């Protein structure tokens, strides 16, 4: 791949102002360009889908026209294994490397192991705990438990204390899950009652089941905040409704057919449930990751102790 066209001191391209380049046949406007190793023409990166950040990775570039004439194909250098690095790997170094620098190799493996800031002793313990490269790569998923039954039992005892610190978070998440389950059930019952009352009113008014609009169906208890709704659920009325699995009667329901006040209430309620479900899932995942991290940290400490005893 060649460097871009030569420019004058003022930044304008040398040669005729009418010189046209690229598949777009437009002049060099200063945008990043790449030179074809087949026809020696120049191409705007954005026109041929090559980004400036990829410049160092291009080995040889052949434009679409030259590729169509079978003059060659674009070849690429191997990229540094670190995902965020756009530079080529040092494959011609001695020894060859999958990374552009040793520092990026270290950064890559740190990103693969979820426990941050390993000490040299911990790294040595982890390396000694696996038998091959495949085992080392799996350290990104979990740290192996020590072989000693006594050591594993000690870890479980230590984890009881560690996990106790997470109890408030877990209990809060359980309460949120319980509220979510209760609200979901109530919204479904409100939706069922909307249909039932609509059918009852149609029958009372001798209206056809098809063609006439449904009632609004909004249940006033849906407007309660979490605390008030929880109190209502514990009331005699609330308990009776949840035990029966249905909301009877027509109390606390909006029977208007054109209701601007509660418009789209069901869609909004379902969207709120989807959001809450996602938040619960994310919160539970955070707690699970913290528990996993604590377990792996204790495993690592125990492996270090085993290493020291074997010396």
UniProtKB/TrEMBL annotation:
Sequence segments annotated as region (Disordered): 291-311
UniProt subcellular location: Nucleus
GO molecular function, one term: zinc ion binding
Database matches in InterPro entries: Spp1/CFP1, Zinc_finger_PHD-type_CS, Znf_FYVE_PHD, Znf_PHD, Znf_PHD-finger, Znf_RING/FYVE/PHD
One term under GO cellular component: Set1C/COMPASS complex
Entry keyword set: Metal-binding, Nucleus, Zinc, Zinc-finger
UniProt domain PHD-type: residue ranges: 19-69
GO biological process per UniProt: positive regulation of DNA-templated transcription
Record keyword rRNA-binding present: no
Pfam families: PHD
Name of the protein: PHD-type domain-containing protein
């Amino acid at each position: 791949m060649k460097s871009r066209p030569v420019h004058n001191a003022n930044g304008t391209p040398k040669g005729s102002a009418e010189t046209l380049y690229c598949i777009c046949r437009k002049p060099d406007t200063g945008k990043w360009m790449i030179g074809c190793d087949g026809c020696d023409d120049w191409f705007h990166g954005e026109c041929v889908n090559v980004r400036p950040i990829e410049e160092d990775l291009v080995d040889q570039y052949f434009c679409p026209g030259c590729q169509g004439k079978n003059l060659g194909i674009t070849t690429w250098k191997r990229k540094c294994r670190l995902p965020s690095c756009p530079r080529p790997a040092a494959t011609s170094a001695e020894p060859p490397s999958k990374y552009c620098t040793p520092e990026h190799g270290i950064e890559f493996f740190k990103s693969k192991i979820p426990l941050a800031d390993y000490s040299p002793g911990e790294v040595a313990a982890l390396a000694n705990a696996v038998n091959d490269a495949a085992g080392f790569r799996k350290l990104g998923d979990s740290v192996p438990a020590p072989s000693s039954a006594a050591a594993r039992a000690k870890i479980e005892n230590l984890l009881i204390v560690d996990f106790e610190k997470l109890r408030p978070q877990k209990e809060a998440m359980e309460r949120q899950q319980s509220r979510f389950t209760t609200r979901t059930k109530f919204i479904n019952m409100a939706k069922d009652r909307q249909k039932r009352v609509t059918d009852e009113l149609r029958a009372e008014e001798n209206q056809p089941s098809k063609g006439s609009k449904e009632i609004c169906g909004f249940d006033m208890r849906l407007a309660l905040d979490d605390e008030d709704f929880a109190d209502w659920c514990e009331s005699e009325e609330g308990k009776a409704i949840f035990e029966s699995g249905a909301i009877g009667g027509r109390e606390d329901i909006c029977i208007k057919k054109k209701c601007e006040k509660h418009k789209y209430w069901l869609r909004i309620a379902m969207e709120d449930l989807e959001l809450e479900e996602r938040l619960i899932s994310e919160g539970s995942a955070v707690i699970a990751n913290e528990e996993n991290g604590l377990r792996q940290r204790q495993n690592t400490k125990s492996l270090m102790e085993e290493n020291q005893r074997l010396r």
